[in-house]
Every structure is written in structure tokens, then in C-alpha cells.
Write the C-alpha cells for this entry.
Amino acid sequence: MIEKTAAATLSGGLAERIRQDLLDGVLAPGSRINEVSLSRDLAVSRTPLRAALQTLAGEGLLTYTPNRGFTVRAFPLSEIVDAYEMRALAEGLAARLAAERG
């Protein structure tokens, strides 16, 4: 049981580290992720690294292609604008409901 928890913690930490690299622009949109070199750079085995990459793919930050691996997802400007508009609508609704319900 402890081994599974340690592995989950390691892959979660790796996912956070890679997520921050994505946000900081260290990993460019459209670039392919080389698991071997990334595992060497992060000094971890490929198993927890793969779990972290799968987590990020599930979040939509990476794209997985069978037999090709992971690539950094590029976000078109139209998707970014749509996301902000949806967030503004959700925040407005939340504010209205909070005001109505006191």
C-alpha cells in the first residue's frame, strides 16, 4: 500500500513540475515530448513519468498519439477567448445566486 501511495505522490509531483514547465513556456506548443530524455533530466524512471504525462493528457494539456507519444497541445486564440467568456458567464451566475440566496 505504501508503494502505491509513494508512486502516486511521485507522479503527482512530476505532473505539477511538467505543468509548470508548460505554463512557463519551457515546453513549446506542438513540441514532442521525449520520455527518455525527460526522465533523465528529471532523474526519475519512465513509469511515474508516463503516469504524469497521462494525467496531463487527461487535463487537455498534452495530446497522446499511439506509437508516437505525447506532444504539447497548442491552444488557438479562439479557444482561449471562448474559455474566458465561459468563465465570465459562470462567475456572473455565481454572483447572482449568492446575492439571491444571501
Summary: The mean pLDDT is 88. The radius of gyration is 18 Å. Helices lie at 2-24, 35-42, 46-58, 77-101.
